[in-house]
Amino acid sequence: MASEFVLYSYFRSSASYRVRIALNLKNIPFDYRPVHLLNNGGEQHTDEYKKVNPSREVPTLVHNGKPLGQSLAIIDYLDRVKPEPRLFPEDAYERAQVIQACEIVNSGVQPLHNLRVLDLLQKRFGSDQSGRDAWTVHWIEYGMKSLETFLAPRAGLHCFGDKISAADCFVIPHLTNADRFKVSIDPYPTLSRLKGVAAKIEAFVKASPDAQPDSPQAR
């Protein structure tokens, strides 16, 4: 029987990772449709996928035949159609703070080192691999400094107190990117604590890149 939800995802995509966490936290079963961002010039550029997501990005969530892109919009949608557990607080100010934490990653950092930007650095501006990596490390560190400062007075076990919020769905994938590029989180005690707690929660573990069916680690 087909699932009510279908997720188009790439195992290494941090934006897809966020949505996988949210789906798991809400115990929503979903069909996983891999979209490899490198194979054959990038499967996101196929005519078939462009019909699902004209931006040619992942993730795309399809709910009862209705497609939706952009991780923040998807998680907000999930909060409305499957309210428990709530990932965005109902209080206006608390909700805005959670969105602020999400946006530090979502608009302030991650787009600056995604695959399209790195490819452009190489193809149009002549950056080699070491230059691409240095660029990525710069923005990952910038994000961690911003998050540590913002979250330190607000965090408990999770980004905001002891209740998981959408902010955790964004912060943990950012820290996984740090691991991938060998950026130490030791200078950031709040982020280190959040990462350690999330590593013991099944919803985060199941959403991790290595646990996905399209990950080489899963084969």
List strands and helices in order, with pairings.
Layout: E1 5-9, H1 14-25, E2 31-34, H2 47-52, E3 60-63, E4 66-69, H3 71-81, H4 92-106, H5 115-123, H6 129-151, H7 166-180, H8 189-198, H9 202-207
Parallel strand pairs: 1-2
Antiparallel strand pairs: 1-3, 3-4
Helix pairs in contact: 1-3, 1-7, 4-7, 6-7, 7-8
State the main characteristics.
219 residues; alpha+beta; four-stranded mixed beta sheet; 4 strands; globular
In short:
The protein is an alpha+beta fold and 219 residues long.
Reading the helices and strands in chain order gives: EHEHEEHHHHHHH
Judged by helices, strands and strand pairing, the structural class is: alpha+beta
Overall form = globular
- Poorly predicted regions are none
Helix content: 40-55%
Task: Walk me through what this model shows.
The protein has helices spanning 14-25, 47-52, 71-81, 92-106, 115-123, 129-151, 166-180, 189-198, 202-207, and strands at 5-9, 31-34, 60-63, 66-69. The longest helix has 23 residues, at 129-151. The chain is 49% helix and 8% strand. Helix 4 packs parallel to helix 7 (166-180), helix 6 (129-151) runs antiparallel to helix 7 (166-180) and helix 7 (166-180) packs across helix 8 (189-198). The chain has 219 residues and is of the alpha+beta class.
